[in-house]
Design goal:
Elements (H helix, E strand, L loop, with lengths): L9 E8 L3 H9 L4 H4 L5 E3 L12 E6 L4 E10 L3 E7 L9 E10 L2 E9 L9 H6 L2 H17 L1
Antiparallel strand pairs: 1-7, 2-3, 3-4, 4-5, 5-6, 6-7
C-alpha cells in the first residue's frame, strides 16, 4: 500500500466512555455542542436548534477563521451513528467525511469510534489539511467528548 491507498485516507480512533450512548450522541448530534469537544480547534460556533434527526439534513457551523460550513448528513441512526460531509455554502461537498459510531457496552458505558475518511476527496488543494488530520487530532476530540459526557 502506497500513500494513495484507501487505508492511508481513513483515520479512526476508539475508546470507552463512562456514559450512556444516548447522552453522548446528544453532544455530537447537536452542532451547538461541537465547539466544546472539537479537538481540531476548527469549529468556533454553531447556531442552536440544529439537532440532527435524519440523513439529508444540513447543519451549519462557523469555523475558527470565520468561514461557514454546511455539513451534509449522509449517515444517521439515532443514538448510534452519524456522519456528515462538510462543504462551503451552496457547494457540493468535496468528498471528505466525519463519522461517529456509538456501541453501548451497558447502560453506563459506551464504545465510541471517531473516523475521518477522505478517500473520496478530489480537490488536491485540500490534501495537506486532510493529511494533517491525524489520529491524535481525532483522539483529542474523542477525549474532550468523553470528558464532557462523563462530567454530566
Amino acid at each position: 500500500m502506497g500513500d494513495n491507498s484507501e487505508a492511508s485516507h481513513v483515520v479512526s480512533v476508539s475508546r470507552e466512555v463512562a456514559a450512556g450512548a444516548e447522552w453522548i450522541f446528544e453532544l455530537i448530534a447537536d452542532p451547538a455542542q461541537q465547539p466544546a469537544w472539537d479537538g481540531n480547534d476548527n469549529v468556533a460556533e454553531a447556531p442552536g436548534g440544529q439537532r440532527v434527526r435524519a440523513v439529508g439534513e444540513v447543519f451549519t457551523v462557523t469555523i475558527t477563521h470565520g468561514s461557514v460550513r454546511e455539513n451534509h448528513v449522509v449517515e444517521f441512526e439515532d443514538g448510534r451513528r452519524i456522519a456528515w460531509r462538510p462543504a462551503e455554502p451552496g457547494q457540493q461537498p468535496p468528498g471528505h467525511l466525519w463519522r461517529w459510531e456509538l456501541e453501548p457496552i451497558d447502560a453506563a458505558c459506551t464504545r465510541v469510534t471517531h473516523t475521518y475518511d477522505w478517500t473520496r476527496l478530489a480537490d488536491e488543494k485540500r490534501f495537506p489539511r486532510a493529511l494533517a488530520t491525524t489520529s491524535d487530532k481525532l483522539q483529542a476530540s474523542l477525549d474532550r467528548l468523553a470528558d464532557l459526557a462523563e462530567r454530566a
